[in-house]
Amino acid sequence: MTQKPPSTSASLANYEVNVKIKLAALWTTLMFLYIYADYFELKTPGTLEDMMNLKTPVGPATPGLLVIFSVLLIVPALMIFLSVFLKPQLNKWLNIVVAFFYAGISILIIVSGIGNEWQTFFVLYNVVEVFIFVLIIWQAWHWPKKRTA
Fold it and tell me: 98: buried, middle or exposed (CB in 10 Å: 19+, 13-18, 0-12)?
């Protein structure tokens, strides 16, 4: 007969994660969502043809419009870095303001995509993005206060 090892009541350690790391992880999650949503959008009818004809969802592609699109994707990518390296006060408010702005864009995309069968996946991605933005705002708003004696 085999004996069972003695039972231990030790539980796994749950270390407190710094709010800066949490914010950086949330922004990183958003960047992955952006990449995958855009990748899957390439598989919808007419998307590749529109790209080849320099059409975008907001009109014809121009150098200026491509700069605007670039800035819209550069900012969240930079938020990963900035969330770790900025000082807390600026960090908190920058995360709140930027997340509110991008949540608004996601909500507009959700509204415009409802009812279009081929945009259902894109609406789903944007719903998840709004949830992540809410988490960013919540984490930043509830930034731990420094205890002074």
Answer: buried
**Residues 126-143 pLDDT 10s:** 999 999 999 999 999 999
- 106 within 8 A of 130, measured Cβ to Cβ: yes
Spell out the SS3 assignment of 19-79: HHHHHHHHHHHHHHHHHHHHHHHCCCCCHHHHHHCCEECCEECCHHHHHHHHHHHHHHHHH
CB-count exposure of residue 134 (10 Å: 0-12, 13-18, 19+) = middle
Domain limits of the chain? 19-44+76-141
